[in-house]
Amino acid sequence: MANSIKLTDAAITRIKPPPSGRMEISDTTLPGFRLRVTQTDVKSFSLITRYRGNQIRVNCGKYPATSLAEARQKARDALAAVERGEDPRAERRQRRESTGDLVEVVVADFIARHVERNSRPRYATETRRMFETYILSRWSGRTFQSITRRDVLDLLDDIVDDGKAITANRVLAAVKKLYSWALERDILDASPVAAIKPPSKENERDRVLSDDELADLWNGCEEMGYPFGPFIQMLLVTAQRRNEVAMMRWSDIDLESGVWTLPREIVKANRSHEVPLSSLAMGIIKDLPEIDDLVFSSGRKVGRPLSGFSRTKARIDKLSGVKDWRLHDLRRSAGSNMARIGVAPFTISRVLNHAEGGVTRIYARHGYLDEKRDALEQWSRRLHDIVSPPSDNVVNLGSA
């Protein structure tokens, strides 16, 4: 698409969105008049001109809510204001300051139109909760355009002061997405968060449990019992994520072939994922009660997955004596042990279902089920050797 064309309704309709970011097309009919198109196919008009020596942008409406003729007239009116020595943005700014959108209205629109349409249900729920807890509780009743950089910095400082430094980073990331969306929709002219850096540095954890810790943890799980004991064991055996194992369903397990299929709705990578169940995993599963379709049922309400992981973690710490670890460290420990016994890094990545890009994503369409089964079976045998007492095996692997 050329950088300059005569803008017409037919031409605008034919313009395709860019693969990423946004592009601008200048109108040959009215100098400075432009059409901006984002990767999500949002089309808006603006005028680039100069006022008191500085280049300014005057928003002229979003297409097709604002017609091409209306947008051109707004641009001409803005040029006339500049000729009179007036700032063409002043009236619009004053109107926004007095009747701008309320924060709660913009946030609700953002979640409904962007988050829920483009995210997994779990992520949408977490995002909504984050905005309710940190944004709406503080800024409800204010206009969206009245929020300043200082307001955002004060919010982040308060979250950090409460001992939630990493949460502050997450809140900033969510607010930046909100403002990027608002800019695309012409809700405001500039973002107050564009140059704000995350308030806290995040160090990647590298905690891997030792063999002795794995054995103590396994025995603590045996003492804890259903549902959390075998749940933690399954985290370790399968190397899958906490929320994925919590949503494990009998209807997703093929006991005959020994495969657990995770539907894309619960998978972080947003694609279905097959997990071969090793001998150790099958031994755990076959001893579990079938209360409802959830393999690890909370027992409080049919279909409600496990929750209360902080309390569970405190209890297993006490039973096992293992300290300074997180549930996610079990996944890392499994991956590290697979590497130790010679499993190829690419296969480990397939077991862990890491997101891939480019050529790797294309090859990953092959499920590598046999390779994953072999890797998890090797890990199963090593884990069995670690956790099984000489005379009282926790799980009988038989001849497998």
Q: What tags apply to this protein structure?
A:
DNA polymerase, domain 1, Double Stranded RNA Binding Domain, 400 residues, elongated, alpha+beta, five-stranded mixed β-sheet, hpI Integrase, Chain A
Account of the protein in words:
The protein has helices spanning 9-14, 68-83, 90-99, 103-118, 121-139, 149-161, 165-184, 211-224, 228-238, 242-246, 279-286, 309-320, 327-340, 345-352, 358-363, 369-387; strands at residues 4-5, 22-27, 33-38, 43-51, 54-63, 253-254, 259-262, 273-276. It is α+β, with helices and mostly antiparallel strands and 400 residues long. It has 3 domains: 4-97, Double Stranded RNA Binding Domain (2-Layer Sandwich), CATH 3.30.160.390; 103-184, DNA polymerase, domain 1; 211-387, Intergrase catalytic core (hpI Integrase, Chain A, Orthogonal Bundle), CATH 1.10.443. The strands form 2 sheets. The chain has a 5-stranded mixed beta sheet with strand order 1-2-3-4-5. A 3-stranded antiparallel beta sheet has the order 6-7-8. The longest helix is centred in the middle third of the chain and has 20 residues, at 165-184. It is elongated. Residues 357-365 have low confidence and may be disordered.
